[in-house]
């Protein structure tokens, strides 16, 4: 049998972490070494890592803790697979440089669902021809960050190919601040938070006499697991950090 990959999970008791633990139990090539909880002393953290000896740390925690976990992984030579959203652009750039320097594999993916990756790719394709675009992302009401990491990544991919133009009426006025959503390089992102939702995104395009809607819905958290599984295996053979699962899919 090939050597098993030892996987620790930060946030193993959370909504996503519980799904990851179930997924790990179903794959004989992966072994769950335990929940890494860093809300303890330095000594406590070191003790957990010494006992678990993980090859990979899967992180589904909070926007406040993920940066520290990336630093811990660097210091320990553990390869992170990060689903947690909310890292700033500057933090992402810094980590990309530091992991490259260290020659250590790392994956940060704002969305592990293949349908969401396709939604981003199709949106970037469409934006080249239909530059009038708005993003609506819809999530459960326990989500901490807005806009979603997926919406930000989609916006980044759209902005890379979209002709820059001013959308809407030039004299448009918001009678309630925020009514037109957040501005991302000249187009808008709207965040909806409601109980009953999981993770959804609609990218709307408009042109003369026509509209185009590209929508993705994660109706449960199992939808992210094939992507997490693929990332754990891929990160073992990588040097440096990639941001976005689309880099692993041709
Ligand atoms: N990339 C992707 O495909 C997806 C990403 N996410 C992101 O994953 C993150 C987690 O989402 P959920 O599981 O819904 O949240 P959650 O709130 O259910 O789980 C977070 C868990 O992290 C734990 N935690 C907090 N601080 C910690 C620390 N210092 N050390 C260890 N554990 C700690 C909490 O106790 C909790 O169990 C969010 O940032 C969310 O946006 C969520 C779904 C899919
Ligand atoms: O918090 C969530 O639930 C999700 N977060 C990620 C994001 O911010 O895009 C991925 C997915 O949308 C679910």
From TrEMBL:
Span of domain Dihydrodipicolinate reductase C-terminal: 115-248
Under which EC number(s) is this enzyme classified? 1.17.1.8
Q: Where is the Dihydrodipicolinate reductase N-terminal domain?
A: 5-112
What keywords sit in the KW lines?
Amino-acid biosynthesis, Cytoplasm, Diaminopimelate biosynthesis, Lysine biosynthesis, NAD, NADP, Oxidoreductase
Q: Where is the signal peptide?
A: none
Q: Which reaction equation describes what this protein catalyses?
A: (S)-2,3,4,5-tetrahydrodipicolinate + NADP(+) + H2O = (2S,4S)-4-hydroxy-2,3,4,5-tetrahydrodipicolinate + NADPH + H(+); (S)-2,3,4,5-tetrahydrodipicolinate + NAD(+) + H2O = (2S,4S)-4-hydroxy-2,3,4,5-tetrahydrodipicolinate + NADH + H(+)
Write out the pathway annotation from the protein's UniProt entry. Amino-acid biosynthesis; L-lysine biosynthesis via DAP pathway; (S)-tetrahydrodipicolinate from L-aspartate: step 4/4
| Residues at which NADP(+) binds | 39
Which terms in the GO cellular component ontology are assigned? cytosol
In this chain, NAD(+) is annotated as bound at: 11-16, 83-85, 109-112
Question: What are the catalytic residues?
Answer: 139, 143
Its quaternary organisation is: Homotetramer.
Protein name as annotated: 4-hydroxy-tetrahydrodipicolinate reductase
Which organism is this entry from? Answer: Brevibacillus fortis
State the taxonomy lineage.
Answer: Bacteria, Bacillati, Bacillota, Bacilli, Bacillales
């Amino acid at each position: 049998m090939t050597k098993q990959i030892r996987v620790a999970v930060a946030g193993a008791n959370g909504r996503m972490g519980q799904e990851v633990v179930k997924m790990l139990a179903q794959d004989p090539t992966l072994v769950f070494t335990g929940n890494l909880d860093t809300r303890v002393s330095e000594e406590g953290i070191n003790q957990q890592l010494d006992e678990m000896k993980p090859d990979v740390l899967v992180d589904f925690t909070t926007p406040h803790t993920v940066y520290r976990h990336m630093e811990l992984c660097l210091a320990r030579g553990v390869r992170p697979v990060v689903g947690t959203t909310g890292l700033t652009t500057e933090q992402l750039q810094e980590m990309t440089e530091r992991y490259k320097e260290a020659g250590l594999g790392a994956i940060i993916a704002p969305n592990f669902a293949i349908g969401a990756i396709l939604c981003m790719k199709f949106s970037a394709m469409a934006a080249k021809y239909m530059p009038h675009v708005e993003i609506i992302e819809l999530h459960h009401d326990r989500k901490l960050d807005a806009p979603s990491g997926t919406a930000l990544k989609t916006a980044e991919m759209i902005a890379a190919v979209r002709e820059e133009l001013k959308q809407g009426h030039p004299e448009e006025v918001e009678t309630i601040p925020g009514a037109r959503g957040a501005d991302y390089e000249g187009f808008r992102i709207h965040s909806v938070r409601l109980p009953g939702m999981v993770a959804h995104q609609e990218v709307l395009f408009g042109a003369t006499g026509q509209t185009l809607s590209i929508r993705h819905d994660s109706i449960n958290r199992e939808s992210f697991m094939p992507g997490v599984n693929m990332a754990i295996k891929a990160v073992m053979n990588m040097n440096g950090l990639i941001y976005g699962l689309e880099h692993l899919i041709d």
